[in-house]
């Protein structure tokens, strides 16, 4: 019987049909063509079976239809799901809108948040505690009335997500029953959709399920109707987890990676068939490239963000980068850039002949890698023309002329330009692969790159070279491999359960695994799979006590799991801690229905004659024209070998064998590409600036800092670092000047250089390989004491000369001080804020000075409260630096130290030029910014347009504050860098070059240039925000934002926690402010409410948007938030907050935002009003309430 395997993509629908005799037919058609057919999948089946329009599909000759579809993904991207009602615990109606409070793009003043999926939210009176015990009964009548009202308004989908329902689903079950009684068509309940901790992710996933499942059901019904004549045809869909499921069981939350998951399955199955068990999947399409990693088992993520929605469900781990065949080429900020914008299918690349822009595809057309004679003639206005070479050539000449005018340089060779753009695209794709492999401790040099997708074969050799990979595999059906994967996939069900107990609780874990196994088995039994055809994979997700990063380990005895966990931790992060307790966060069971048949349906070419070139083409390689043979893939026979450069043309794609590579057809008809000559190092690049390599190195330097950050977030102990992401990583030249700073927390931008320069100055002739330094001294390059900086020198291979420094700065939960969390509100001397570490050598030539470090942390008048926690965070920072060193050495191996050092300077020059261009667009201005204490920050901005320089003069700013509203000079530098980076508007590198056109005048011993022994705890947080608002006020570009981090620190001798709480941003000349978001100098995240309550003896009772707190105007300021926290143990609470007296300013007639305020509601009924900077002792059941400021409005109404 026939089988159909279909991948319904956004642009094309690919169909692989297996005939009854085992032969394969491939077809491809447009996914949307309403004039010709209702549905592409059904139309493809009809076309292959040669049916007329009026003929019914004879389903008695079709055994199965297996599909992947983007129907759900497209509906999510376009926000075209069903009208949905959200029911959530009272106090959390705004939680999914607030999310984790971080803004998506750090430097956007006009912050754009994704559109919410639910139309209406109802806050339900009910509450469970962190153990799942009911502390407030459910009001059923109230809920029923709300459901009746929503139903009468035409809403038919409902999502139910209550606090801690993953432990006790009783309240959700009651509501589900009521919703069924009220005849809602779709009811999604969170404990079934995602039975895992984290209300934000579980809530989002539940809403997605309710929003998309009806759309999927309609689509499934539409396809089913065409196949309904005979029940022998089985309709199945690919889930995001890589398993097939019956069409009737297909859910919205499992459909988002339906198509790409088929590609992962196919990539791994075809790779294993050919004998390769370590694979990198490389799927390059028109708008983007998907990459994945395989080393024996599928890798899945249980937390994914897609289209602005957090998904807490098992999904194939696929990293997507905006570099595809349609990625648009541009010249901006003195650099060649590729993407992220795409030309799409319409108008498409310039070569499509529909007026489109230059793209990656056009580079290959110009360079002769894509020959119009061996490409479908489906282009032009009427869809019947070949690729248009002349249009491409003209557009490249136009671009060359434009660049010449901008740079005052001679016109560039267009073929060299095209090769340059391709080099950038390749590096972007290689960096995406590093994130799923090298960043996780895998050495990919011995992997096979399994390449598929329409554009993959054109770039495979280059991408492999960028990663040090020597072998590439291109399957015969590489152009439709995702569709082919539908046929190779098994029926699978994954069941997961939250556990969060010590690894020693093995009997309880075994009971949960047994329950999950039973559920997963039942899922497969219901789809006709017998018990003897089911195999189970049982995994545990382990983490160190207090840590955040889970590692997936095979479920086994505690001893074996510990051993496996420590091995994986060592591989991934470079260390493990022998005595540290290990916890199981969750357990998963995957049930797999074994296939009864082996899919090996290749239409083999039986010919033994050696294929000869069908044509020759001029191809440009390294700016030289080389006559290159073109072979037809279907004519190649097993064992035939072809040396590069060569072109292999086939119906679904074009494959390039590069110089130094050869291609061979294996027994499975895969085209195996292998590097046969050693790759030449990029010695030809030289040290003079090249606009292509400028972008390559800009991305390389930034990628190193970002990979360091990933290691730090994954291995840290402190919640501040691992969840709130209060850290920054950077690399510096040997003098300590900033080369690249990953944009983590703005207040750290540019301020770390002072710390490196301090180490260089104080340790002249005393820095050796394997040394590591630690400091937090605010007057020697630090900011405030909780921000601890770990610095490691990078030596040349001989170990003689320092070539770089790497550093990581993280906010430790406690470094001592008068109050837990190291944020005393009334500190007057730096020693009251904690332990001061000044230029301490943590590792001396590789020897860990552990005891000496512990002694420092335990010293002083107010020592650290949890030294072991500090040591764990320091270990994570050391590991992050090791990641940076490893990547720097790889870069030097690839390009050579002279070139790397030259481009280190070139990227700084480029950043300088970008800032100069921004400066000439600015207007001079001044601002007197009043603080709550009656003092002022004064700033005067002067612009020299001739020299393209700016003077930022803070003369007149208040002198040293007697308390802790003082900031070191480094913080002021960070503020200036952040403000000017927001004004550039484009993605420029952040480095020392940004400071060169800016002169900053800061009065000595003022509150923004603090000297020892000033207290500075509020400097990093409050003074930075206030200074930032003052500078924006002088420039007149945006109204005042909340200008505070609303520091809320609480704890006792056992536990400490630190929160910074979001508020409203200011409005601008053409945009409203944003509500409930982190502003300007911070972008730290909030901890999920369920995680917070599980870790600490507190109960979060409300986290909501504070309506009407933003200033009114032509454009309104954003609103602040209300946060209510009940304490379940006695603790000390500290607040460090601004704008409690002075309102955030409006501009051009806009009204100011409201001030913030906080108070304590005691159990005896009394109210204690708190000041912005204050502390108090709380007792059991006391309720702390904070309202944060709104942003100012812009313009008169």
The rounded Rg comes to: 31 Å
Helix/strand/pairing class, anyone?
alpha+beta
What is the arithmetic mean of pLDDT?
90
Show unreliable segments. Answer: none
Distance between the termini: 70 Å
Strand content: 25-35%
Strand ordering within the main sheet: 19-14-13-22-23-34-33-30
The helix fraction, in percent, is 25-40%
Name the shape in a single word.
Answer: globular
Strand tally: 54
Largest sheet: 8 strands, mixed
The number of helical segments is: 24
Task: Outline the secondary-structure elements.
Layout: E1 2-8, E2 12-18, E3 24-30, H1 40-48, E4 62-69, H2 71-77, E5 84-89, H3 95-98, E6 120-124, E7 127-128, E8 134-136, H4 140-152, E9 157-161, H5 170-181, E10 186-189, H6 190-193, H7 199-226, E11 234-238, E12 244-246, H8 258-273, E13 279-284, E14 289-294, E15 300-301, E16 304-306, E17 309-311, E18 315-316, E19 319-321, E20 327-332, E21 335-342, H9 360-366, H10 389-407, H11 414-436, E22 448-452, H12 460-467, E23 471-474, H13 481-488, E24 491-502, H14 506-525, E25 534-544, E26 551-554, H15 558-573, E27 582-593, E28 615-621, E29 624-632, E30 641-643, E31 646-650, E32 653-657, E33 661-665, E34 671-675, H16 691-715, H17 719-722, E35 727-732, E36 738-741, H18 753-762, E37 772-775, E38 787-795, E39 802-811, E40 840-844, E41 847-848, H19 850-857, H20 867-895, H21 897-919, E42 925-930, E43 936-944, E44 949-953, H22 969-984, E45 998-1001, H23 1019-1035, E46 1047-1051, E47 1056-1060, H24 1089-1095, E48 1098-1105, E49 1121-1127, E50 1131-1136, E51 1157-1161, E52 1167-1170, E53 1173-1178, E54 1183-1187
Parallel strand pairs: 1-4, 4-11, 5-6, 5-9, 9-10, 13-22, 22-23, 29-31, 44-45
Antiparallel strand pairs: 1-2, 2-3, 7-8, 11-12, 13-14, 14-19, 15-18, 16-17, 20-21, 23-34, 24-27, 25-26, 25-27, 28-29, 30-33, 31-32, 33-34, 35-36, 35-39, 37-38, 37-40, 38-39, 40-41, 42-43, 43-44, 46-47, 46-50, 48-49, 49-54, 50-53, 51-52, 51-54
Helix pairs in contact: 2-7, 4-5, 8-13, 9-11, 11-12, 11-16, 16-20, 16-21, 19-20, 20-21, 21-22, 22-23
